[in-house]
Amino acid sequence: MPAPLQDITAALPVLSGTGAALIAPLSWVGSLLLLPACWTDLAARRISNTIVLALLPFGLLRHWLEGDLLTALGLTVAIFAVVVAGWRAGLLGGGDTKLLTAAALLMPSEQLPLFLALTALGGGALALSIIAVRPMAPMMVPAVVPAGRAARRCNPATTLRRVWNIELWRLRHGGSLPYALAITTGAMLTLWMSGG
Hints:
- This protein is mainly α.
- The protein has one domain (3-194).
- It has helices spanning 3-11, 18-32, 34-44, 49-66, 69-88, 94-106, 112-133, 149-152, 156-173, 180-194.
- Helix 4 (49-66) packs parallel to helix 6 and helix 6 (94-106) packs parallel to helix 10.
- Residues 11-17 have low confidence and may be disordered.
């Protein structure tokens, strides 16, 4: 690391004791924010900027407490550059790009290769499951969704039926993958395997 960066890093206060005990819970609480991203990606293939922005303070605080904030930011920028290239090539959606970058900031710096590998494996498993199920899609029956006043009520059963019908349509017409599921799987497994 260049001398000026070492000086800046050394000047950053790092908490010990209580701060160190906060690192794993911060990451786990932050990773729970990935769950609504999974739901919105599955239901609408959209990932809210609000969710992505809400993840950032957890990751920044985690790395500040660990004393490797500049390293983590550098690695996150590198990951962002790579996933933006994937987005420009049409391999990832814009929401997936932002979510993967924000989730990477939640991970311990030394565990980023594991996180990326587990996310890629999760994406591969998701793709294989879609490929396996797609031939059966024409035989699958859409769920009955109530009409009228009952349809306007927001209840979990009606919402799940609508999501099922939308996903069934996507299966039949070759829709995109809800990659937030793979990102969340990679993040949760990485945190679990690394102890937070």
